[in-house]
Design brief:
By secondary structure, this protein is mainly α. It has one domain. The protein contains 5 helices and no strands. The relative contact order is 0.13.
Length: 156
Amino acid sequence: MEAIRSKINELIVSYQEQLNLYGQVREMGLQEKELIAEGRFSSLLEVLREKGELIKAAADYDEQIAAAQAYIADHLQLEAFSLPRLKQAVSDALGNELAALERVIADLVPTLETLEEQERSNEARLSEFLERTKDPAIQRWRQMRAERAYGRDRGK
């Protein structure tokens, strides 16, 4: 049972690390929202790059999670890994570990749902912003600002 306890603890740590990384992704998403609203695309690209690195780091834990789940399922002769099956298969001696595993998964699910909604929202904002920038009036306003910035309007 110690090997199963160890693998459950590995799962908990891996999920907690993912949760931490996804929290950082959520913060980056808030920055992304602001940068889109401000039209600061060079900064936006940097944030998107950093966010992509965080997402990749979180996804790297998926392999460890899958390996631990496979080990547990195989060792306990479960058809497939699931919390209900795991609960049925282990003794009460692993109750604390199972409770901790359930808590971290319970925290992870809404975090992922929030990130998905945030991503949809930011994509919609970006599309909307890009559509507005195609507006001829905005293009003329930008050209006038550029001309003023370079001194072409000074004599008028």
